[in-house]
Every structure is written in structure tokens, then in C-alpha cells.
Amino acid sequence: MVKFASSKIKPYFYKNSIKPLQRNLFYIVFLTIFLTLGNQKIYSQEIPLKTDSFPAKNQIDTTKTKTENLVPVVDTIKTDSIIKKKKILESKIKRKAVDYEKLDQKKKKITLYNKAEVYYEDIELKSGIIVIDYEKNEIYAGRIKDSTGKYTQLPVFKQGANVVEPDSIRFNFKTKKALVWNSRTDQGEFKVKAALTKKENDSVYFMKGARFTTAKDIDDPEYYFQTNKVKLVPGKKVVVGTTNMVIADVPTPLALPFAFFPMTEKSRSGLIVPTYTDSAQRGFSLQNGGYYFALSDSYDLSVLGDYYTNGSYGLRFETSYGKRYSFSGNINLRYENLITSERGYPDYSKTTIYNIQWSHSKDSKSNPNSRFSASVNLGSSTYFRQSLNQVNVGSNLNNTLSSSISYSKTFNSVPQVNLSLTATHSQNTNTEQINMTLPTLQLSVDRIFPFAPKDGIKKGFFKNINLQYNLRGENRIETTDSLFFKPQMFRDAKTGFQHSIPISTNFKVFKYFSATTSINYNEVWYFKTINKEFNSVQNEVITRDVQGFDAFRTYSFSTGIGTTVYGTFDFGKDKKIQSIRHVVRPNITYSYTPSFEKYYDTYDTDGTGTIQKEYTRFEGGIFGAPGQNMSNNLGFNLSNTFEAKVTDKDSTKTEPKKIMLLNNLNFSTSYDMTADSLKWSPMRVSGGTLLLNQKMNVNIAATLDPYAINNSGQRVNTWNIDNGGSLFRMTSANITINYAFASTDFDGSASKNKQGTRNGGREDDLFGTNTDLSDRRQSQFVEDDESKENITEFFKYKLPWDMNLAYALTYSNNNREQKITGNSLMLSVNTDLTPKWKVGVSTGYDFVQKGVTFTQFRFERDLLSWRMDFNWVPFGDNAYWGFFIGIKSGVLSDIKWDKRSLPDRTLN
User: Fold this and answer.
1) Helix (H) or strand (E) segment spanning residue 620
2) Which SS3 state, helix, strand or coil, does residue 11 take?
3) What residues have CB less than 8 Å from 276, skipping those under 6 apart?
4) What is the pLDDT of residues 238-291, one digit of tens each?
5) Is the pLDDT of residue 17 over 60?
6) What is the DSSP string of 489-519?
7) Domain ranges of the chain
8) Measured distance CA(719)–CA(725) in Å, rounded
9) Domain 93-262 belongs to what topology?
């Protein structure tokens, strides 16, 4: 038998105290194993007694029987019925602390002090002090005081994805139940604080004296909901008893007997609370009420409606869909039935308007050789002017709606083939004219160089000869709002195919000139032509459609030669402007198209048959008609650019700074050699440049006519200078200036561009901003990073601002009227008066009409978790004001007050 001698252990030094420990070595080893590994079972091993063995004699075994008489022996000894004890701890407990770990064997407790941490299974606990009672299977965590007597190091309890930050906590790691005092936790967009929380299991919490809010500071929120009873299922729902809304620590009369809030990261279906409004012509109304369907993770649906007491109503269906790394899009369908006045009154009217919007984009990575996109905006021409649920300034002032749906595919063959199908729509909301292509087919074969070597440089006239093949087919429809998608719209459709084979080459002439030559062959197929004849009964010319296939073929020739000339004017390196560089690109082109009079016929203009006119049966075709007159033209074009090298203001820079003086200055005209008079066409002059650190964009254009006009305003074959005028007669001119700048341009930071609206208008605020009446939680101003910070100052000594200016001047002198037909200035300014107050204005002045253009004032106040704004259009056809205050959070978006005055629009 082995005996262990007792011995004293050297004193063990702690940071805060010194405690000499005297322990028997056997107990120390045993305690270490117990605390680290938990409770283990120990088994003894019996050593069998030694017995003497005797060798067996070679005798015959008389006990053997035949195998078929053997009966298997069953062991009648029962299995061990003793139930194994379950481990006290299912896993290891990991722990650490900065100051000390105190072990109390009698009370069976472990105390961790200062930045204590305990890890057990999926549970993490960090606190100032932690006490582990391994006899009761409990853990207590709380705060500690610092040198000033202030409580610090609040407990942070984390189990899975749930995090709780209380003042103190008591947790049983065997039953997983807990009591939490002054807990703070985030559940989705909500922040929840409770005086006492009871954790029943991993999925259910009961709270007493709780408040929940979407404010950032849960201890001092600007608003919260106070309740005494809460049942919380993390990640799923919150069910509360009697709840009262508190704003700025002041209870409000807004209360609910009970409430249910979904707490999930996924979308949930639910009701959308409508907004109450009133209109002088249509009475009281409820707008934007309906139901949201969270159909799946890939798509959803919102059904919204409006109802007015005079019988008007509106319906809207909005859906968004998407698949990661594949595609995304949204569809909006809007329909409104509008009634004005009462039935029987003379001003009674009833009309229906609608609008369809579809946006689809495909991720290019999903299939690089195949692309599909859609941008659709079509409907009633008067929708944005008459709709009671739209304050869309851009679409109201813009008179064009357009759509495009396209699919394209690339075949990686040799040569490469590109195929595309496109459906387009263009609608003028003033004239209500609609032009559509349903669809347009385009097929192109890449360039082929039949005489070029497989390897090597394509140099020379023959080696550079190349040809292509292009096919374009269209089904074009021209209609109006009243005939849209009616049978007559499709009967009037025009269909045709155009085949073109361009053959071209390029080569050098005299080393410095680049020459191009091309021959173009076109073949057009139509399935409907016309026939004109004089009807003696009706005594007029009748145009009749002829159904059937017909075609015409044309060809043309063109060539051109051009070069580039560089000129530099040096002023010296010691000058501010060191040099100016002038680049001139002259180009002369010649084109020839023969006459195709074989495709022309004649018809009688009266009953006598003496007067006849020529026409072509391909008249009015979508790809035009063959020309009857021969064309033999010379074209002249001269482009110029001007650059300068200036001394950089930064003295550390060794190289001069390059600036652009003129981006382009172009002159173009043509001479028709076959014309009998007026052979020269008017000269077109255009130019543009960027000024003021490329913030100001200036564009100019003018038309100069060398011929004079007679008293009736018609051009005559007389030079204007010979008629007592100047060399050229300016018939039209225009200049546009756009200037966008902001306070960030002067402090070196980058400015943010505004996003244009989807329905039309400009990308800047010169036409004002649009208002989405169904969701006004988002800011109408550009949000920067600074606005997201918690700023406490009342006034900014640096006011961030941005400004957009647009000036347009148009001059007309076709008939010597010398008139300014357009002269307007538009302005948009946005600024932050304080860190939380934003102000904006869009306005302008028309100097020709002598009146103020569309004007809009915008005011917004950031109330942390709330937002308040006021929009005002003081005058005009779109006069409007609207006030909104509401919670930014989507889960509480129905808590708002929205009051607005919609314009009483007259139905057309």
C-alpha cells in the first residue's frame, strides 16, 4: 500500500489578495479533474487468481453426441439493470477573468472578477463579476463599481443569435431558464428593454415593465411603447398586453388593449393602413389602403386601393421579384375610375385612366451570351396629370412616355452572329399619338475580310476590303389613345424587312491622308403596298392598299478622305499659359445614289386624263421608298479642338496642367452637283466646352444659310451677300448652359449625384422632386454620411448645399423675324440649415413669357427615428401642399400623420 505524505503548498498570489492554501495533494488533483471534466465514473479491475494447469490426457470424450441432437444453451443471467447516471454538465465550461478566480469548495462556487467570461455550449456570458454555483447548476452575472463608484461592465448574455444586455442575470445552465433584470435586446428593427425578464426556454421570454422602440438609444428614446406584459418569441413575434405610446417621456392617449408584432427577417403578409384625405370635387377619401402578400423569398405582391365618397376609386398592384445572380425586377399596375361633380349636372364627367410600369434587369454573369431587359412605362396620356394618387412632377411636365423590352443573344461562331428582338413604345401625352414596334428583329453577321491573310496585318486597299450582313424586320404600329389595343390598331400595322450588305475598305493616301470607300446594297420587303387611281364616280383620287409580297432593291456608293493637323502655339514656360494646342480634322466625302425611277408609276389626277402624277407603290413604307432623283453630293466637315497647358498653382508640380478650352467646334455643309439651283445646303455650326473645373457645360449651335429669301420668305438662288446682306444669314441659333456645383467642391470632398425618377423628367431637381404618396418614409433629399451621425450641435457653421442651374436661349430668323423664341433660367437649391433641418427650392423664370416657371418648396426635419416633411407648390396647374410625419421604420410605417391637398384636376 502506497501512502502520500502531506505537505504544505507555497502561498498562491492573487492580484487583490494573498491566501495561503493548504490542501492535501490528493484533493487538489481530484478537484481539478472534477471542475474541468465534470463527474466521471471509476471502475476497479480484479486480477484473476493463479491456478496450476495440468496437461490433458489423450482420452476419448464420451460426452459427445450427434450434432443434430445439440440444443443451444441460453444464458439465463439477466443484463445489468443499474441505470447510468447522467452527467451533471453536458459540455465543458470555459472561463477566464482579469483580476482573480476564487474557488469555494464548501459552498461549491466559483467567483470570477473583472472582465469575466464564461463559455458553455452555445452560451456566452461576459460581465464584471460572474458567480458559478455548480451544485445548483446556476450562474449569476452582474456589474461592478469602478474607482468613481459608477457601475460598469454590464453583463452581455448571448445564446445563439440572441443577445441580451441586462444589469444582472441569473441563469440555470441545466434547465436553460433565466431571470434577467433591466434587460436590453434587439429584435429585428425593435429595441426592447424590460425591468424583469423570465426566460422560459430557448424560444419564449416573458417580460414585465417593458418598453420597445425603433429609436437608437433604448435608455433615452425619443418615443417608445410602454407595456407591463410581454411575450417574446425571438425572431418570430412579440405579443403585448395593454400598450401606451409615450413621446418624449410624455404618455399619449394612443393606447391599445393588446398588440401583435411580427419579428422576423423575412417579409410577412399583413394589412396596409390607408391615409385619410379630402378633395373639394370628390369628397372625403381613404388612400393607399390594402394588403401586402409576402408570397415567397423571391417575389411579393401589394394590393392597394383608394375610395372617394363621390364614387371615384383606384386600384394598384405592385410586385417585386428577383433571383440572386440571375435577375430582378418589379411591376406596377395602376387603374383609376374618376368622377367629377354629380350625375345630372352639366359639369358631370367620368373617365378611366391607367398606367403600366415594368422594370426587369438580368445579371450578365448568369449567361454572358444572352441578355434580357425591360423598361416599360405606358398608359393613358393624361394619367400623371389627372391621377389623384400621384404627385409626379417629372412625369407631369414631361410630355413623353417610352418603353423598351429587348432580348439579345450572341452566337460564338466564326464569323460571330448577333440576334436581338426588341419591342418599343413611344407616346406623346400632348397629342396622344402612340408609336410602337411589336417587335423589331435585328440580325447581324460580323465583318468578314475575304482578302486578308489569316495571320498578319491588314494593310492596303484589297486586304482591308470587308463586308457585313444586316437584317432588320419591323412590325410598326401608329395609333392613338382611343384605339390602343383595339382591332383597328393591328389592322393599320406596317410590316417589312430590310437587308443590307455594306462592303467597305480603308487605306492610306500620300502617307498622311486616310481614305474610306464603301458600297451599300439594300433590299426591302413589304407585305402591303398601295395603288392610286382616279375614281370618276367620286371624282377624286383613291388610294387603295394592296396585300401581298413586294420588294425593291437599291445601292449607293460613297468615299471620303480626311486627315488630322496639329498646331501648337508656344508662349514660354515662364508664362501662365505656356502653350495652346489646336487639332484640326478636315474631312471630304462624296456620295452617289442613282435614280430608281423604274419603281414609279403614274395616275390620273382628273377625269380627262391629261394631268398625271408619278408615285411609287412603296410610298409610306416603314423603310422608306426608292428615290426617283439621282443624288450626287459632296460633303464637307471640319472639326476643331483647343487645349492649353498652364502653370499649375501647386508649386510642387513639375509638369504643366492641361485644360480643355473647346471640346469641339464643328462646321459642316454639303453641295449637290445634280441640283439645278440651291446647290449648297445651310452650314451647321456646333460647339461645346466645360468650364469652371468642368462643372459648367456650355453648348452652342447655329444654322447659317448662304442664300437669300424673297418677300414671301422662300429661299431663292441668290447669294445673301449679293442681296445686300452678309456672307451668311443666321436662320437659327441656341445656347444651353448647365452648371452644377456644391459646397463639397470647395472642401475637396466628393459630391453625390441625385438619382432621376423612374417615370420621366430630369435627373436633377430643376423640375422639382416627386412624392410617393404610398410610402413617404424616405428622405426627398440626398443623404450623406454626415447626416447619419448623431450630431448634437444646433447650428452648423458650415452649411452643406448643392445648386443646379440651367439656362437656355433660342433665336429664330427664318423669315427675317429676328426673334428670341426661348429664354429661360431654371434653378434648384438644397441646403442643410441645421444638422436636422433640410430646405430645398426649385424655380425658374421665362423671360419670353415673362412669368415664373414651375416652383416647388421642400422642407424636411430629421426627428431621429421619425421624419417630418412639407412640400409646397404655391401656384400653377400643379398647385399642391402636403405635410407628413411618421416613423421611419418599416415595421411601424402605419404610425404616421399624412395631410395633403391634391390639385382638383379637370378631366379632359
Assistant:
1) none
2) coil
3) 284, 285, 286, 287
4) 888 888 889 888 988 888 888 877 776 677 788 888 887 777 677 888 888 899
5) no
6) HHHT-EEEEEEEEEEEEEEEETTTEEEEEEE
7) 93-262, 266-398, 734-901
8) 9
9) lipopolysaccharide transport protein A fold (2.60.450)
